[in-house]
Fold this protein.
Amino acid sequence: MKKWYNDANKVVNLIIITILLIIVFSQSFATSNGFSLTLLGSIINHNSTYLFVLIYFILLKFKFGRKYFNYLNLILIFLYGLTTVTSLITLVQSFSLNTVLEFTINFVLLVYLFHTMFRGTLVWDEFKLNNSPFNELANENQYYIVLVLTMLSLIVDLISTAVLRGIIISLLDAVFLILFGRYIFLYRKYLDEKKIDSDNEGNFDEVRKSIDNVVDSAHDKVQEVLDKTDIDEKLQAALDKTDIDEKIVEVKDMVVEEVKETKDSAVKFVKEKIDDKEEVVEPKKTTKKKSTTKKTTTTKKSTKVKGEKK
């Protein structure tokens, strides 16, 4: 008897039920908290992806959906491409463990879808996806990656959520991701059994060699530049030329010499001023002698007059 998680029809039915529960609980929680434009926008952003995925899986139940299965897969991949870009923008705007896990899960699911749903189509041959490096990841490994990331995200949400309705929504989101990953796993397993584009060779080795060559080339270029410039010798020479102690001594000697010259100039200037003063005083002494002579002459004249009277 086939187990339920290996039955694609049962997995699809569970996915539809889970999405319906997520939408119903989101709407009921929104109504209980009161209506607001912010809350409405949050609900639309949360449920828009689920609505499109719900339509995708409901269409698979009908002949129309099975007929245009590849086109529906193209729309689904495009939708998850937009979701991945949106989560990347959210990660840039507000970096946290929760946003990192959300972006990582969306990116892993996008790669998983891209390398599964395009097998057996013209896109696979057109873009030569048989040489994609992600082909080296086995189907089980990719599913386990989705499972582990989903559980980590659930743990973070449960820790950061203190409201019961938030816990219920987080649990339902985790169930959906696990079931959706299982659906991709089962379809890829079906492709492998039918051998549809199953001869794929990953080129991780070639990518790694290319990266190693680029790194080695860059290292050689840097080493070549270092060898040519000889940084150690250049640096030592620069340090020798700009020896701080020698520069300080030179400045000190220069200052002392300038002070000495200034002092000598000041002393010389003072001496010259003193000499000039002495030269100005000497003419006054000569004037006094003249006045003495005049007095003497006057006396003689007066004496002479007196003699004559006698």
Remarks:
- DSSP finds eleven helices and no strands in the chain.
